[in-house]
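Morning!

As promised:
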Amino acid sequence: MSSMTTTAAPASTAPGSFGRMVRSILKSRTATFGFALVILNILLALLAPVLTSYDPIATDAMNALQESSGAHLLGTDALGRDTLTRTLFGGQYALAISFTATALTVLLGSVIAGIAAYRGGIVDDIITRVLDSVLAVPAILSMLVVVTIFGTGPWVIILAVMVVYTGGVTRIVRATVMDVLPKDYITAAKARGEGMFSILAREVFPNVLDIILVEFAMRASWVVLLISSLSFLGFGASPPTPDWGLMVAENRNLMSVVPLATLSPIVALATLIVGLNLAADGLAKSLGVDRMKEVLG
Amino acid sequence: MTPETITSNGRRRADEDIDVVQLRNLGISYRTGKREVAVLKGITLTLEKGRILGLVGESGSGKSTLASALLGSLRTGSFVSTGTASVSGQDVFALRAKELRRFRISEVAMVPQNAGSALTPTMKIHEQIAEALHSLKGNKTAQRSRAEELLRLVRLPNPAQALDRYPHQFSGGQQQRIGIAVALAANPTLLVLDEPTTGLDVVTQAAILDLLSGLQGSLGMSMVMVSHDLGVIEKMCTDVAVLRRGEIVEAGATREVLANPKHPYTRGLVASVPRIDVPGIPPSMDQDAIDAGEDWVPDQEVYRRIAPQGAVPVLSVESLSIDYRRKHIPGTGATVQDVSFTVNAGEVVALVGESGSGKSSIANAIAGLQKTAGGRITLADGGAGGGELAKTVTGRPKNLRQAIQLIFQNADTSLNPRQSVHTAIQRPINLFSVKNASVPQALADVDLPASYAQRLPGQLSGGQRQRVGIARAVAAAPSLVLADEVVSALDVSVQSSILRLMDELSREKSLGFLFITHDLAVVRAIADRVVVLYLGRVVEEGTVEEIFASISHPYSRLLLDSVIELGDDHDAKRKAVKDEIPAAPPEVGCPFASRCPLVRDVCHTVAPPTIAVSATHNIKCHADVAELTGVSAEVLEGTRTC
């Protein structure tokens, strides 16, 4: 034991621990701002029923097309629905769908990436070629194809997002998994005779979790935008769902009459996307992930 | 303890103009958060023109930081806290960016540790060298001929053809030669070498070092050489400075310092180097005592390992062959062919050979991670039940997978950085449902306190990580442990404690160790039996005493002669100018024929017969025993090539 006393670091903060990550995010003003925006969006969406007494769907022809007032802070739309209420509830819809879609995309992409990288050879070739060819089609086009085949509805949109973005996630996660696979602890696990999924779950994924987290935050902002675009085009949520993209589409002709009805969902959408982007940047920096590499994929 | 100055013989000189390096109270620190951590503290030394200074120290001693400071280079976040560094009369840290660039062009050059990663992979050799030829800018023909001249200078075979090749087309030793050529391109006054031979095996190392001393002699430049290898330092350097935790603990003329170390740390370093001529494990260093400022003297006692009595075989490998070729290439043979050996319970068998000799392929085949082309690997075991091993690990039953465990060379990558020590060790215990095993027990087996279970690998030192790696292997209650170069990445002071641990485990748990290494001194320290491999063929096999005795295969002799050790008479030793190991083994005949000093016609066509020198000692060679007895340096002298 005598020669073993040159111990490295103190045991308080492990590298990559949660505490250290939070501290590093709080140190950056932009990252803090980003997370604050995202958290604000989530809170407003969750508290929507408490914050407003109106029904987001019920129409009220008597009070249509109102300007901002005490009763309707952000006015009403053509059908007399309270804009603030619709915007708040729209947050629920946007966050729920896009986070579910992103989570499933990242999960599926990571698993496929793990299998492709671990198996290598022909399996890897086939998987990457297929995904590459999906990536070659413009995102909005492949989404429209999915929507045309399966109709509309939240699950179809989620499916469409997965079709569009799984390839990108797979590509990035696969590259990082490849970095981990030649490490000796993987060899040790193989020599113990552990199976592929056990090795991926125990040894590989904990080491690429940082990349996956950043990937999630970044994709989420794209997904929010993509879903809203789809709704705006009329292929996403169907009326009277309080969806931001749909709200913009419905109210844009009345821009000169009730500008707030169009602007509110736009501002909400913008804050969420900016917030997610800044959060992804901050997360990447605190985890030491090269964001530039990620974006260029 | 800090020395005043280093001069060739201790005399003081008035004209300091001729000092190439002059460091005065140099301190370098880096900032982490709000703390400042000193990497170098009060370094004062001078180096006269034409002399070679060795910087010795363990990892983290600051020797590489000091070496790059000579080029006016600091790592991001580091800064000069005290003192000055002047090279060729210029204060390197006072130079402005443009001046610093000119200084680096004309005055200093650096040879990095791993030339393979220092050369740009997409650039042809002549372009790499042309980059450093600032005086010939724009003149393509002159650059080319100068580049060729440089390659000839570093004795690269076929310099004219080499110019148009890419770095990956050269072996590690050749890449290092090219790295040296690039460094020499601008005729530097000072050449800084950071561990120039550490990644190379003994034969290549000897050749590169000979090249360097030859170049130093003919070009007359000064050199600063960083190394952890005291033998290399002794052979190469006129002066030496021993660093420990950022401070020079001892400095002076090399012979003087290494033969008569004054500081307890230097004494410990010198004592903990395993020697080829001394069987047994050297004493380990008591860092605590040195920290406390005690005048610690290492035990002179070398621990002699006793080979286990009674041969109970654990592993037997019969006629193993491994082939990486997709299709047959005329003139070449399989990577590993007809390798047979056994490992007994409690025995440490060393598998020795240069890089490229197939050592790791064989280990992987035994572990089931490498497909074999033929042969049988059998595990004979009392407890777990033995049997022939299936070719890949997935086809093996649990008890056989449990019986073979691995320890790795690189402690950094052998542990999952996101798993605590507890998780890492618990896994094999759960997976194989090992009875009477626990994490604290496994940690105790490797002499680590049980409290370490909660730590992550990042919170452990290199030696401790290696111990955890061993604990993970031992926790599975194996009967055979495959240890691939397990001590070569460790500092010498830690090396012997790990070797002792392996010795202890082999005796107490009757573990068979297959110890893969190219370090013959370590073999001498720990092994009971030795299998010498060359190009995937066994050329010699015997007990450790027999291998190091006078009768040996010419290849074993070459390996032994190439070892550079502390206390050797370096000048008297043969100049090791040898061909490098061929890329592929020959299809027929003796694999060593292309480099053998005793080669005869039959060697190229007929596989060599086995000469049984004793019941345990076999040599595969066409020559007779008389010729193999002490094949001396003079014989090999005649075989220089390239």
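The radius of gyration of chain A is 23 Å.

Hope this helps with the figure draft.
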